[in-house]
Amino acid sequence: QVQLVESGGGLAQPGGSLRLSCAASGFTFSSYAMRWYRQAPGKERELVVAIATAGESLTYADSVKGRFTGSRDNAKSTVYLQMNNLKPDDSAVYYCNTYLYPVNYWGQGTQVTVSS
Q1: What average pLDDT score do residues 13-41 get?
Q2: Is 31 helix (H, G, I), strand (E, B) or coil?
């Protein structure tokens, strides 16, 4: 069965950095794009970045452009989100995701809090 397990969240100061990880199993990882979403309280879940099968990071959220970069290690079946120059508005639960027709699969989420 498909499993996505996230780690790396926590507390950061404004201007700081965090790196999130998501370990994947149960499917042919290298054949599928991966995605990072986030959801803040009272807000809709939004797509942040997608990571193509060859590793290109594609930014979907304008608010993180130039600050967040996705990457992947296909040999380890792991996807990453490097977050730099963090802002309080980045505080949210972050989820990794992949789509295997006809199902969207999600990790458990990891909390990121940016506060001074």
Answers
A1: 98
A2: helix
